[in-house]
Specification:
The chain contains 3 helices and 4 strands; from the N terminus they run E-H-H-E-E-E-H. By secondary structure, the chain is of the alpha+beta class. It has a single domain, classed as Double Stranded RNA Binding Domain (2-Layer Sandwich), CATH 3.30.160.100. A hairpin with a 3-residue loop joins strand 3 and strand 4. Helix 2 packs parallel to helix 3. The radius of gyration is 17 Å and the shape is elongated.
């Protein structure tokens, strides 16, 4: 799986290795379905502080298109973990829907004969 990391904030770039490890860990069972993940981190309102660390995760999937999820939290790690968890759940839901519809199609075709 290819993991791309983008950020202009100096503190976020320190998290590049952690981000890559977390993406690979969270998506370890979905790696065959997600060949590319892109993570963008930004500080929404700069040095003023507050809940303003934004993490956007884009997963390019085989067959289901792109999944884009964003999360805002008070620190980088929480924003990253929340966005990855939501993205993984969404990809699993898409995969299950696809496999359920294939099963239903197969059942329908076998009953027609």
């Amino acid at each position: 799986m290819q993991v791309l990391f983008k950020s202009r904030h100096p503190q976020a770039t320190d998290l590049r290795d952690l981000t890559e490890r977390r993406v690979r860990f969270v998506l370890r069972r979905l790696g065959w379905l997600v060949p590319r993940a892109e993570v963008q981190m930004s500080d929404v309102n700069g040095p003023r502080g507050g809940i303003d660390k934004r993490c956007q995760v884009e997963l390019r999937t085989d067959g289901a298109g792109s999944v884009v999820v964003a999360s805002v939290a008070s620190d980088w790690r929480t924003a990253l973990d929340n966005a990855l968890a939501r993205a993984a759940r969404f990809v699993m839901r898409l995969w299950r829907r696809g496999s359920d519809s294939r099963r239903m199609r197969h059942r329908f075709i076998s009953h027609e004969r």
